[in-house]
Amino acid sequence: MAILPYQSDCYVEVNGVTDVLTDTVVNDATVTVTLWTKTGDPVTGAENLTASYVAASDGNYRATIPHTADVELNQALKADVSVSKGGYVMHFWQDVFVERYPA
Q1: CA–CA distance, 34 with 12 (Å, rounded to integer)
Q2: What is d(CA 87, CA 25) in angstroms, rounded to the nearest whole number?
Q3: In angstroms, rounded to a whole number, what is the distance separating the alpha carbons of residues 48 and 84?
Q4: Looking at the 3D structure of the chain, how many domains does it have?
Q5: 6 Cβ contact list (under 8 Å, min separation 6)
Q6: What is the greatest pairwise CA distance in the chain?
Q7: Residue 103 falls within a domain, yes or no?
Q8: What is the average pLDDT score of the chain?
Q9: Exposure class string for 5-14: b at 16+ Cβ within 10 A, else e
Q10: How much is the pLDDT for 100?
Q11: Rounded-to-10 torsion of CA 3, 96, 77, 60
Q12: Higher pLDDT residue, 11 or 84?
């Protein structure tokens, strides 16, 4: 479980993306993140966030969850992370629920 500070930008990081077929680091993937409520609704302001490649990091990507995302205190959320390249999905995660508390 991750704790997101309330009314602060947060980061979702995906580290060490590799192509398992070639065992090479992937620095040019498309990485997206969406937060969902327990009831399955996307969180306004945290939908299809693009994670940018972190320069010279060997496969690390970072997406910003803005402090303006529509998240309430103590609200349980789920994060979907998708990594794709060349038209196919390389990885997909549905992370554990995260909760936002006062900083």
Answers
A1: 10
A2: 17
A3: 13
A4: 1
A5: 71, 73, 100, 101, 102, 103
A6: 44
A7: no
A8: 83
A9: ebeeebebeb
A10: 55
A11: 70
A12: 84
Query: Which range of residues forms the domain containing residue 16?
Result: 3-98
Instruction: Please tell me the pTM assigned to this model.
Output: 0.80
d(CA 96, CA 80): 9
pLDDT digits (tens, 9 = 90+) for 28-45: 999 999 988 888 899 999
The answer to the question of residue 11 being in a domain is yes
pLDDT tens figures, 61-79 = 999 989 888 877 777 788 8
Who's near 82: CB < 8 A, 6+ residues apart?
31, 32, 33, 89, 91, 92
CATH code for position 7: 2.60.40.10
Whether residue 75 is contained in a domain is answered as: yes
